[in-house]
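Blinded run. Sample ID left blank on purpose so nobody reads anything into the name before looking at the predicted structure. Input follows.
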Amino acid sequence: MIRKYLMSAALIAVALPAFAADQIQIIDPYVRVSTPMSKSAAAFMEIKNISDLDDRLVSVSSNVAARVELHTHKQGPNGAMQMLEVKEGFEVPAKGEHVLQRGGDHVMFMGLKQSLHQGDMVTLNLRFEKTGLMVVDVPVDLSRDQPTETAQDPAPVSTPEISNEDVTHGEPEHTEPTMDKKEGDM
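Blinded prediction complete.
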């Protein structure tokens, strides 16, 4: 009986990564830093949910930084754009996607433990509410200027103008000198 149980558990453990890939696809991920000496970085990607169930990216982690969080940009009371942690995560609707892009939602690495250079690979752990853990190796790409428009979304999106000069990095807990980055630096 115990042997049957252990065998079933092993088969489920082997099948889980394949299940995750059948539910969620990570498209065109990349990490960007402003300089090799930067103490913060950001990751961008398209998260595509090919299942019939809504899902949610609830947390992220990586061994290259002291803290890794899900972030977004919000306009503050003085009109300046701020990067803020999104503790509830990002919804990824059934048969839909959620795009993490510069100037919008993104993964934020704070307190980098090592320098990141063009072509380096960063292991990123993405935890989804229903799909579970996905481990993705993400390249560092410093040559991208701005996100490219996707063919599926030709309609213009109405968003507030983002001025890189006034972008701050969120709440007071994120204002340590080594983590004070502007979005234009990423």
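Unblinding after everyone has recorded impressions. The first helix runs from residue 2 to 23.
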